[in-house]
Amino acid sequence: MAISDLAGPTEIVDLDRRHVLAPWKNQGAERGAPIVRAEGVHFWDAAGRRYLDFTSMFMFANFGHTEPRVVRAIQEQAATLPVVASSFVTAARAEAGRLIAEVTPGDLNRTFFSPGGAEANEAALKMARDLTGRPIIIARYRSYHGSTMGAMTLSRDHRGWPFEPGIPGVVHAPTCDPYRCQFAPPGGRCADCAAHCARSLEEVVLANGPDRVAAVILEPIAGPHGVIVPADGYLEAVRQLCDRHGILLIADEVMTGWGRTGRWFAVDHAGIVPDILTTSKGLTGGYVPMGATVVREPLARQWDDRPLVHGHTYSGHALGCAAIVAAIGVYRDDRLVERAAELGEVLLSGARTLMDRHRSVGDVRGKGLFVGVELVRDRRTKEPFVDPARRTPSPSAKDRVLARCWDDGVYIMPGQGSAILLAPPLTITREQIEEGLAVLDAALAVADAETAA
Ligand SMILES: Cc1ncc(COP(=O)(O)O)c(C=O)c1O
Hints:
five-stranded antiparallel sheet, seven-stranded mixed sheet, Aspartate Aminotransferase, domain 2, 2 domains, Aspartate Aminotransferase, domain 1, single chain, alpha/beta, 16 strands, binds pyridoxal-5'-phosphate, 37% helix, 15 helices
């Protein structure tokens, strides 16, 4: 039976329930809506309802849905050479590598291609140990790096608990979160958050033996946990401490890359060059699953006369590489990175006005078209709606707010805890941003009603 011959939404959902294990949910719970079509910043469900995509699906549809230049490039590659073993070379792979070297900072010149973000981080983990001969990787609390065994060990929240023990040699340090800084006086803001948080990371380095630490991995802006923007100077301080101890710095730009924050990569705001940069999502706009692990030239040279012992059947998949080449062309031709910086001001300032009207909004922060809205039960104490240690969270105020947005035709993805993530396609217009924020504004009344009196 052809996909188009399937009878209708009810049959599709029923088949999916019977034969598909859906990610991240109780299999008996409601499935998501069947989606049948998308265009620009909108998509449609099977009932014909249109939704404004205010989170680029999972932060990947950076240039929107059905961008014809990328679709055409994939079609042309599929018609001539859709699949090639990774032991061969293709023009698409070589050109994708060249273009990535052009847009990533400094001497990040050589790319290993994988099928997605978690795999990009798995590669980075192995590379760091291989390049340094050291066993320990330091990651941070309230980070997300993927759901494979290694990547999930790096990510530290309740979702990893059932699968422990994870991989050995991973330790965690606090995240730099100016809103919830552990060094802040009660009820106040930390005066020197960057320095305190970098020092606490260095303490973890020293406690584990600096010459045993291979790498520090961090999201330059922690996305899934609520777009946590570190204090100014923090990333620079982490770069310096890594240099002091000969430790590699891995920047996970799976979510923050490709113009999302108003620069090509979030590390560009700090002007630092990580030793390894991992990315995915906006790399192809999600049109073909691809991940990339980009390594600084002097480090990658170590593998010129010994093997890189890592690979996938689909490393450098031809369709994915063709999509990357076309995607980078779209980012450049349409000046989408600059556009994200400009429209980001509209999104951030608009989201900040929500704080004036809603006592459930504790904090709003972000860069470019990447904004986190953190809901709290009590603004004074910053008590969250969702206890971070709760293993199976039932629908919270945040979920009810987002359900209301959905009912009103705006799709917004929840973050972890009580965070709401706003990250529309970089092609969105000012009017569409205002439209999305107006719907969120109305929906936040639901959370206001659940705040402390
Ligand atoms: C920062 C970050 N790293 C890694 C990943 C994992 O990527 P994937 O889901 O493609 O494995 C994600 C996914 O959301 C992410 O946000």
